[in-house]
């Protein structure tokens, strides 16, 4: 039942989108910090790597402090966003960050909704649709 | 919990922008102040910001990807200020000139608008993070 790899993939989608949301928050908090460079997640690459690489299989973690072996956004996924810097060396672009935030929230909502639907189907099967 | 760290980062942004608003308010209120506790005319307040890695898990320490913002209020470098000839003023110098603070209301208003917009951006980020967290709670229904 829960071996369905789609659950793992949905989880990764939600992981990556919330990681990206955190980076957007960090960029927005530093929108007036001189010299700050905007950070972003190489989102498409991280997601497709997470999905192809181990289609739903987790690496065993025998200790909670082990780094996750899944393709969840690790240090390598974070890149400095390009784009022209202002005169104070800061290159956070408010419009870009807001658009990214909207996109991320929608993707997360999509992941959450599909997970909920799948759970609902399962519950229906268990209770016989009552 | 990760979502709370995102809220912390946004909250640091809110605090920094609020401090900037307060500095603007103080500068505008004291635009004509000619005597202060330190002596001399009021000196303009500026807020400087710097980013610092948010405290978090080991993985984040490696990536240094989340940055809080820290802000500090500093006094603007002393400039001559504005000198006006008002020999009747109690704070006039022996030559009859009074030194007024170097506060430019236009500059302050522009700063005020910038701070307001940045504050709104951080508030929106908090709103979005909250919504996402709420949605993952809905999964348990």
Question: How far is it from the N-terminal to the C-terminal residue of chain B, by CA?
Answer: 20 Å
Helix vs. strand class of chain A: mainly alpha
Q: Poorly predicted ranges of chain B (pLDDT <50, ≥5 residues)?
A: none
Q: What are the secondary-structure elements of chain B, in order, as H or E?
A: HEHEEEH
Computed CA radius of gyration of chain A, to the nearest angstrom: 18 Å
Task: Bin the strand percentage of chain B.
Answer: 15-25%
Largest sheet of chain B: 2 strands, antiparallel
Structural class of chain B: alpha+beta
Q: What is the average of the pLDDT values of chain A?
A: 81
Q: Which chains make the largest contact?
A: A-B, 35 and 43 residues
Please provide the ordered H/E string of secondary-structure elements of chain A: HEHEH
- Strands ordered across the widest β-sheet of chain A: 1-2
Task: Sum up the overall morphology of chain B in one term.
Answer: elongated
Q: Could you give a short description of this structure?
A:
Chain A is mainly alpha-helical. Chain A is built from three helices and two strands.
Describe the structure.
The complex is a heterodimer of chains A (130) and B (141). With 130 residues, chain A is mostly helical. Helix content of chain A is 54%, strand content 5%. Chain A has 3 helices and 2 strands, in the order αβαβα. Chain A has a two-stranded antiparallel sheet. The relative contact order of chain A is 0.21. Chain B is built from 3 helices and 4 strands, in the order αβαβββα. Chain A binds chain B through residues 14, 17-18, 21-26, 28-34, 36, 39, 65, 67, 74-75, 78, 94, 97-98, 101, 104-105, 108-109, 112, 115-116, 119, and chain B through 2-3, 5-7, 9-10, 12-13, 16-17, 20, 48-51, 54, 58-59, 62-63, 65-69, 114, 117-118, 121-122, 124-126, 128-129, 131-132, 135-136, 138-139, 141.
């Amino acid at each position: 039942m829960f071996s369905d790899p789609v659950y793992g993939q949905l989880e990764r989608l939600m992981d990556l989108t919330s990681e990206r949301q955190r980076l957007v928050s960090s960029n927005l908090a530093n929108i007036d910090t001189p010299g700050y460079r905007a950070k972003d997640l190489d989102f498409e690459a991280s997601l497709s790597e997470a999905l192809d690489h181990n289609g739903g299989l987790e690496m065993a973690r025998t200790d909670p402090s082990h780094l996750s072996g899944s393709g969840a956004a690790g240090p390598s996924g974070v890149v400095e966003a390009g784009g022209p810097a202002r005169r104070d060396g800061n290159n956070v672009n408010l419009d870009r960050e807001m658009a990214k935030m909207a996109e991320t929230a929608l993707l997360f909502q999509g992941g959450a909704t599909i997970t909920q639907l799948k759970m609902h189907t399962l519950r229906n099967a268990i209770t016989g649709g009552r | 919990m990760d979502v709370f760290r995102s809220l912390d980062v946004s909250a640091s942004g809110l605090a920094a922008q609020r401090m900037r608003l307060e500095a603007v308010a103080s500068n505008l209120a004291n635009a004509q102040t000619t005597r202060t506790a330190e002596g001399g005319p009021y000196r303009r307040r500026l807020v400087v910001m710097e980013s610092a890695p948010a405290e978090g898990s080991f993985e984040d320490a490696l990536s240094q990807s989340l940055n809080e913002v820290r802000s500090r209020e500093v006094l603007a470098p002393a400039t001559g200020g504005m000198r006006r000839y008002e020999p009747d003023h109690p704070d006039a110098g022996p030559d009859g000139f009074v030194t007024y603070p170097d506060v430019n209301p236009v500059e302050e208003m522009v700063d005020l608008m910038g701070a307001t917009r940045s504050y709104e951006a951080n508030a929106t980020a908090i709103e979005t993070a909250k919504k996402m967290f709420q949605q993952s709670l809905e999964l348990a229904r």
